[in-house]
Amino acid sequence: MSENMSEEERTALDDRIETAESSDEEKLIETSISTGETTTTGTVEEEIIEARDIDAYYGDLQALRGVSMSIPTNRVTAMIGPSGCGKSTFLRCINRMNDLVDTARVEGELLFDGQNVYDETVDPVALRRRIGMVFQSPNPFPKSIYDNVAYGLRVQGKTDDMDERVEQALRDAALWDEVKDQLDKSGLDLSGGQQQRLCIARAIAVDPEVILMDEPASALDPVATSQIEDLIEELAEDYTVVIVTHNMQQAARISDKTAVFLTGGELVEFDDTQKIFENPESDRVEDYITGKFG
Asked: For the whole model, what pTM was predicted?
C-alpha cells in the first residue's frame, strides 16, 4: 500500500478488509466454494492468468501501480515483499475479493483463461467457483468435518456421490488418514494445521482451476507449516497455486515462479524462482533478498 499512509490509516484499512472477508466468508464459499523496471523473463509456459497494467486503490490510496505479469498453469507462483507492498491486494484482485471492500477499485485488465475478469459480463459468483481461496488464519465452519467439505458441493447442487467427493477432497488435502474415523467431529476441534488442511479440502472439493493462498502457514507451527508446504507442491500437479508469503525461504522451497513486490505497490521483478534468489536483475530485489532492507 502507499508508503504515505499513516499507521492509523493502514490499521483502519486492514480492519475494513478483514471485516469484509469475515462477513462475506460464507457467501464466498457459496459462490466459489510505476518505475518501468519490472523484469519478466524466464521460460515460456502456458498461462492461465495475465495481469496487464493493474492499478488498485482503496479510496484515494493507491495499493498497486502498473502491475503486469503472467501466471503459468499448474505451477506454484509465490508473491513476496515487505508488509504493505500490495501482494495480498493483487491476490484478491484475481478473484475479485476486493469487490467486498466498498472503497476498493481496480483499473487495467486481469485475464483469466483469456477473459478480463473485470469485464461487465463476468459474474463474480461464477468466477469464484473457478478460483478458490484459502485465508491466512484457518476458518472452518462450526460444522462437522464432513459438512465443512460438503458445504460448497451442496450449495452448487453437486450431491451425487457425496461421500466419495468428500473423501477425495480430504485425501487430496492430506487429511483423510487423520480424520476418516471422526468425520462427525467438529472442524473447530482440529489442530491449527489440520484446520488449515480442512479449509484447503473445502476449497478443492468444488474442483476449482486455481487456488489462491494468502499466508496459509503464517499462523502454524514448523511441523504444520512443513505439511502445508508439501501439500502445496502436490496440489500443483492438478491446480494452479498462487501463494502470498512473507517467508522468503518458503517461497524458495515450494514455488516455480516468484514475484517481488516492493514499497508503493510496484512489481519490481517476476521470474523463475531460482533466478530471483540466485541472480536477480534488479539491484532493489537483490537488496531485499539479502536483507539490506525490508
From this structure: 0.84
